[in-house]
Amino acid sequence: MANFFRDNPDLLFHLQHPLMQKIVELKERNFADKAQFDYAPIDFNDAMDSYEKVLEVIGEICGDIIAPNAENVDNEGVQIVNNEVVYAKGTQENIDALVKAGLMGITLPRKYEGLNFALVPYIMAADIVSRADAGFVNIWGLQDCAETINEFGDDDQKERFLKRISNGETAAMALTEPDAGSDLQAVQLKASFNETENKWYLNGVKRFITNGDGHISLVLARSEEGTSDGRGLSMFIYDRANKAVTIRRTENKHGIKGSPTCEIVFKDAPAELVGTRRMGLIKYVMALMNGARLGIGAQSVGISEAAYREAIVYAKERKQFGKPIIQFPAVYEMIARIKAKLDASRSLLYETCRTVDIYKTYMHISEERSLTNEEKAEMKYFQKQADFFTPLLKGMASEYCNQNAYDSLQIHGGSGFMKDYPIERIYRDARITSIYEGTTQLQVVAAIRGVTTDAFLNKIREYEEIPLKDELIPYNNILKGMTEEYAKTVKLVLETKDNEYLDFHARRLVEMAGHIIMGYLLLFDTERDERFLASADVYIKMVKAENIARAEYISNSSIDDLKFFR
User: Fold this and answer.
1) pLDDT at 459
2) What is the tens place of the pLDDT at every residue in 18-76?
3) Maximum distance among all alpha carbons in the chain?
4) Would you say 482 and 544 are in contact if contact means Cβ atoms under 8 Å apart?
């Protein structure tokens, strides 16, 4: 029996990070639920034991059910029958297994029949599920929508909808339209309020909606007549039980074929307003998208893990010129780089996740009582870090995921191009990660503020001050040199005072910062466990060369050069 949690010690390593004690104690409000719920933990160790046991169950389901079903699900895809999406047989088996195990609503409060888990173990579950089948995580992982309802819905909405998700109903977020993809301010789906009935109705089309036939959908719609920007948009809940939506089609996609991507038509569809009018895009979608981007970070890491494992297995088994190909430098260097990028991505994933965990929990606590000045300062500190780290994570992890899948397929040679090997599916599934929930280019737009405000530089300076073992000091010195080069390069670009020139070099600057941050995170992992030394060595030396190239490119360019690219 395979277990995708137990066979990967890196997961337990990240689960046991020292900051988890603070996270758990905040999340559990000093374990106040123990008197009301018999499954609530009594202390920190009990909570961590619960996390570990649930992750073991998920690991077992992934190893024994979800991963074995992945190829058939990819071949079978989805169908529309009587205006409803019918999943592949294997997908339904996956859902049934996870629902039976009580693994929906993982982060929801216990009063809504959730497990009240911190975000870290939930994202770790998404990491594991993504390794088993990246397409399936898009169905299971959309329980994220419940968090938006929990944050912004009223008590009645929480009571009615959150329990349904905890008990296995699926969700969707309906944002994109044919003429409103990255530019969500252009959303035109209309929300009209009928004063006689005291009810909202939705009319219009949504496109590229993941799991678009979910039981409960969060819908971005234009509620204010005469508006054309984000200030006229509100967020609504649509319940599939109303049967007021037509599924026009499901997309025939390059990858993640088991996950239905729908074009849907709302026609006088009754809906419920979430929170306050006009705040749909400005506040609620931003929160929803940040959660989704964290989920795509986990999906990217899970795909990288799958690609790495397929590369190792094949390179050990495949013999050429009388020996396994893993013994050839051209191959073992590729595998080492895959592992270094994987480990760096996972470190950034959980560093980001911990910051979100802390600030989100403080946010919920602030609704129950007044925060102390110290707590307010902590919440502000971690929220700021999460704001910059989330797009950095999504951009870096998804790009590394694509590179790792590419290199793993390359190691397979011609065999990797055939459907006989899982890497062919993994390679196709990887491609979407740098596109949906905001392309890499849009993540750069969000992350560049971390460059221009010195948020990344300030965080790096914090990392510089953390003590390290003597044997890690040389790597720290490399990163310090990279930091000075980064600061100098940023100054060079900002001194032009030209926004177009900044935009032109934005990705290079963001990636330079990302490389340094991920290098430090790998050093801190190595400080706790020496098995990460190889990845730290490979990664830091690799990105030093990449940063030098970016800095040199920028220093040799000028504003006048932009005319050659227009």
Assistant:
1) 98
2) 999 999 999 999 999 999 999 999 999 999 999 999 999 999 999 999 999 999 999 99
3) 81
4) yes
d(CA 558, CA 342): 35
Asked if pLDDT for residue 566 goes beyond 90, the answer is no
Residue 381 CB neighbour total at 10 angstroms: 13
Q: Specify whether domain 440-565 bears CATH 1.20.120.470.
A: yes
Distance between CA atoms of residues 255 and 304, nearest Å: 15
**Which structure tokens are listed for 102?**
């009580």
Q: CATH 2.40.110.10: which residues of the chain?
A: 171-276
Q: Which DSSP state fits 72?
A: H
Q: Please give the backbone phi and psi of residue 421, each rounded to the nearest 5 degrees, phi first.
A: -115, 140
Residue labelled with tokens 């929801």: 108
pLDDT digits (tens, 9 = 90+) for 483-538: 999 999 999 999 999 999 999 999 999 999 999 999 999 999 999 999 999 999 99
Q: Cα dist. 178→219, 264, 267, 321, 389 in Å?
A: 15, 11, 16, 53, 30
pLDDT tens-digit series, residues 152-204: 999 999 999 999 999 999 999 999 999 888 889 999 999 999 999 999 999 99
Q: Coil, helix or strand for 253?
A: coil
At 180 the pLDDT is 83
pTM exceeds 0.85: yes
* Backbone torsions φ then ψ of 259, nearest 5 degrees: -95, 115
* Helix or strand holding residue 339 (H, E): helix 329-366
Q: What is the DSSP string of 270-314?
A: EEEEESSTT-IIIIIIHHHHHHHHHHHHHHHHHHHHHHHHHHHHH
Give the DSSP per-residue string, 357-370.
HHHHHHHHHHTTSP
Rounded distance, CA 519 to CA 460, Å? 10
pLDDT tens for 309-368 read: 999 999 999 999 999 999 999 999 999 999 999 999 999 999 999 999 999 999 999 999
Domain 1-169: top CATH class: mainly alpha
Look at the block and give the residue holding tokens 């306050």: 276
What value does the mean pLDDT of the chain take?
96
Instruction: Return d(Cα 135, Cα 244) in angstroms, integer.
Output: 27
CB atoms within 10 A of CB 11: 23
CA 324 to chain centre: 36
What is the Cα–Cα distance from 501 to 562, expressed in whole angstroms?
A: 8
Three-state secondary structure of 404-461: HHHHHHHHHHHHHHCCCCHHHHHHHHHHHHHCCCCCHHHHHHHHHHHHHCCHHHHHHH
Backbone angles phi, psi at 100, to 5 degrees: -60, -35
Domain(s) labelled CATH 1.20.120.470 in the chain stretch across 440-565
**Amino acid sitting at position 348:** L
Predicted confidence (pLDDT) at residue 1 exceeds the cutoff of 80? no
Write the CA distances from 233 to 177, 225, 272, integer angstroms.
14, 10, 14
Following CA atoms 177, 181, 183, 188 in sequence, which dihedral angle do they give, to the nearest 10 degrees?
Answer: 0
* CATH numeric code, 171-276: 2.40.110.10
Asked if CATH classification 1.20.140.10 holds for the domain at 279-435, the reply, yes or no, is yes
